Amino acid sequence: MKYLIAEDEIDLQQSIVTYLERDGNLCEVASNFEEASEKAYLYDYDVIILDINLVSGSGLDILRSLKKEHKDVGVIIISANNSLTDKLEGLDLGADDYITKPFHLAELNARINAILRRGKYGGNDLIEFNEIKIDTRSRTVFIDGNAIVLTKKEYDLLVFFVSNKGRVLSKEMIAEHLWGDNSDLLNNFDFIYVHINNLRKKLTAEGAKYIKTAYGSGYKFIGD
């Protein structure tokens, strides 16, 4: 999964990143209002962890913009304020959850997983597409009941494809999803081709021929 941690308390920000990355997630960070606004607008995330009281602006204004742009992203508001007014305002604006500082990282992680289950997977930890089953808790993939071995990038790529089935994904979108901020450092998209080709071979070997090339545009995951 890909997360944006919009938090100006650097120690807390990095603690969240370290905790979430232990499970193989990709985390980007923003340390002020302007940086958080820009990233939330430009890039796609599965969940944004959004501090209300960012330096130079309110996280609630970013939440308003996300909803105005109809961004499909889960949002957890975090704040030092245990104010009922702030909590209700955040939830009324469309936040999926609200957690007050200080909090245990395990609790934050549990709330993130609950949002992912509700929003993307219909309340389940299991993603299914025809004969493909993805267990998001154990990060394992089965095709017709047989487990297949994927690298971390191949697994992240498959989840990204299945979560966006039927949608053309450009090479830039895939690179940004897999490498986040580091995608700007890539000189070309050869790495993407390698991961897509390897994933395609493993799926095709099991009869799952769903990765299609959208010539001149990118790739699409779609049934025949």
UniProtKB/TrEMBL annotation:
Domain OmpR/PhoB-type: start-end pairs: 124-223
DNA-binding annotation, residue ranges on this chain: 124-223
Source organism: Aequorivita ciconiae
One of the record's GO cellular component terms: protein-DNA complex
InterPro entries cross-referenced by the UniProt entry: CheY-like_superfamily, OmpR/PhoB-type_DNA-bd, Sig_transdc_resp-reg_receiver, WalR-like, WH-like_DNA-bd_sf
GO molecular function: phosphorelay response regulator activity; transcription cis-regulatory region binding
Pfam families hit by this protein: Response_reg, Trans_reg_C
The Response regulatory domain, residue ranges: 2-116
Name of protein: Response regulator transcription factor
Presence of keyword Transcription regulation: yes
4-aspartylphosphate modifications at: D51
Any one Gene Ontology BP term: regulation of DNA-templated transcription
PROSITE patterns in UniProt: OMPR_PHOB, RESPONSE_REGULATORY
Keyword Cytoplasm: no
Keywords of the record: DNA-binding, Phosphoprotein, Transcription, Transcription regulation, Two-component regulatory system
